[in-house]
Amino acid sequence: MRNCGCNEFSRSSLLRKAVAQAGEGLPAIEPGMPLPAGTGLDRRSFLARSVGLAVAVYGATALSPRALDHGIAQALAAGPPDTVLVSIFLDGGVDSLSVLFPHGDPEYRRLRPKLALPDSGLVFPEDTRLRWHPSAQAFHTLHSEGKLSVLPAIGYTNADQSHFTSRHYWEVGNTDPRLETGWLGRYLDHVGSPDNPLQGVSLDGDLSPSLATARKPVAALSGPSDYSFWSPGVWGKVEERMLDAIGALGSARGHDAALRTAREVTFQSHRLRQQLEPFGGDFTPPVAYPDSDTGFPRQLAGLAAMLGAGLPLHCVALSANGGYDTHSDQAQELADNLELASRSLLAFQRDLEARGLADRVLTLVWSEFGRRAEENGSDGTDHGAAGIGLLMGARVRGTMIGEFPGLKNGLDDDGNLKATVDYRTIYSSVLEQWLQTDAAAVIPKAAAYGRVPLLR
Amino acid sequence: MTTRPPKGLGIRGPTPKQTAGTPLSTARKIPVHRGRFGPAEAERLLWRAGFGPRPGEAKKLAKKGLHGAVHSLTHPGRDRLVGPKPVDEDHHPIAPLDAWGHDHLWWLDRMVRSNRPLVERMTLVWHDWFATSNEGVGSQRLMLKQNQLFRSHGLGSFEQLLLSVTKDPAMLLWLNGTENEKDAPNENYGREMMELFTLGASRGYSERDVREQARALTGWRNDWDDDKGPVNFRYDAKRHDPGAKRIFGKRGHFTWRDSCRLAVHHPKHRAFFVEKLWSYFIPTKPPAATDRALQALYVRRGFQVRPVVEAILKHPLLYNGPRMVKPPAVFLAGMLRARKRGIDTEAWTWLSNQAGQQLFYPPNVAGWDDNRWLDTASFLARWDLAGRVVRPYALKTDDKAPLDPDKLLARALDFWGGPRLTPPTHRALKTFAVHAIGDADRKWKKEQYPPLIENALRHLIAVSPDMQTS
Lengths: 456, 470
What we know:
Radius of gyration of chain B: 25 Å
Number of helices of chain A: 12
CATH architecture of the largest domain in chain A: 3-Layer(aba) Sandwich
Number of strands of chain A: 12
Helix content of chain A: 25-40%
CATH topology of the largest domain in chain A: Alkaline Phosphatase, subunit A
Shape of chain A: globular
Oligomer: heterodimer
CATH class of the largest domain in chain A: Alpha Beta
């Protein structure tokens, strides 16, 4: 990580990388560092021919690839789930006091003599002290359209300032270092399918610990690939006609059960081929995404395409571009990363709208903590407590959840922002209002955290 | 080892004491198909009892009439293989004992070339019934040995088959038979033998029976050779638990033979056997009267398989009842038989795996799930299988083909030996040909499109819903 003087962050990244390659033995975890959820889960890779995807499956070890492929095919035939939750992680602890900075707070310039940002003019109307970072114009746009709910001080009391530990708490949905399943994993264990690993998909290449289950299968995948039909000695216009004829063969009706099954599968295969055709190799999203050598905009575009193809994805987790652990030289690095992340998210939202999927998708953006209110001596900021969270989607209320506590009275004894909303309140509310599940079955002591209305 | 039958157990057939299950009246008649037995019916019989017709075979079989046709399948005479011998891509003979995937090719070759299709089909039934996977055995040699056992016992006595399977080396390895010894009993085989092979899950046995069966089955062992792997499978009385056991309420110093016989003579076995065997040939459950009559026949004929199979193959439901999805091995072997094409590529193994049925690798001890043959993944695999079958015959653009949709469709059907298609499938294919010819708006297209269309029709017929089922 460039400009990162934080040894612990690099170390925890390495540890996570290592444990993600499960089956190769665990690295020595230092005392007090919790094991990421899903550590040691068996990883099995196979080509899910039902959807033309290379899939790495975690969990449900008793099921053969064939059974999992069949599970995907069955879920595909049943149609996509009503709702999709996308969890996007800003890795390293993003500086919330820059993303939505307290321009109108007299303490801001005192605490941030070098890093305080000039007025961007991107006023946050719900709290006029606040301004969007000049590189976060895209968030301003989404917010003004009512598609972004902002949580300006989300976290938990007695925040742990270890990347590793705090991220773990967020991933497992409780401040419990021993929990081994992710909060979305427990949700899927509770209501999910026994054999469709695409119900919980990590786009990071490895399992996202939030998705770690105890029983049900989940998957990691990079993107759609190939589901194509080739016929020897047939090409051009005749081939196009031939592929259409598959659909016609599958469209006939009749009473015989076996014939009906064969026809239905023939038609499903025909439809799937059509749906996946646009991204056989180079697919073109319906809207422009930012150019980037990071994978993030491409991953979001691929995700929208997969959702557009009707793939049975339900919970999706991925990391945004960049690292946000800005201990030094924060200004430029944060601006660059924030610009790409926010513009990619706006493009994703526009893509979902263009595909008519916007009502089905809710995106949660989070980071393991915010950063110290007072800048450090190397043009950066150190680990803090509460930070910023975002909920994006066509159905969010678009209003602030919790308030910005101010820098005079809103800091704890360490000079870190105090939380005005607990992350488990948001998880519980998402579970109940978006995923239609009793949060008590997923979040320990869920009743203690209260709920906030999230949706219109 | 004792060969003495357990006390109170009739070995040679029913005794009045055994009427706890089904009454064994022999008066019941099993329905026999009385309708037409023409080429269409013969074609279905060849798909259900074998791997589909070779060109002209259905017509020939129909001439024998129903009884003659079934008899020719169940009494096929000496084993002969007709057609080109199996080779790999480099035209070398296949190496079924050693090379990966050549075990699959070896058996597929028999399915394609054998003059005893029912024997091969029954071998496939037993491979699924006593599902053993080389995944656990790790020896193609032992898997093929087991396969020969199914082939030689396939239409004989089920009791003898079960006895042979119980001491079969592949099975002994697969379900830990040689790890089952008196001081450390292993219940694996004893449990599956009752649950999956003879009685059905939780049908007429208790957990105590499982433990006692395991004790009765102790005594088998083998050695390990660093070069050859597992060798020298044998019964060792020193490893057998000679004590008294209580199985199904009977007490005795039971051995592995008693263990098998007790299961086959258990009053719940006959229904399990009949209904399971029936399900391989006819997709709907047997009517209650037929079920009872088949059970009576099975017991009356001393647990012989052949008479029961004959009765099923003559049952009206095989001809008038619903269709069945073809297992991938049957689908592929059928295409090759229709083309009289020998085994000439290793692709059949991995494509069959993708289609969901690599021979010698059933998914688990319960065998393949016949309700799961078709989905979007296996459809693509069947498409690729069919594509590989038609590829060597593909017409080139300078080959002559008529600019006439009906003629093209007739020629493509002829390619497959003239299978019968349902009207909607026929219409869909015809519509494709009409539209594709309609696209030929230039002279060069009128010349080049027809062979392309004929190629496409051959492929589409092979993957059509009609050909996925029989």
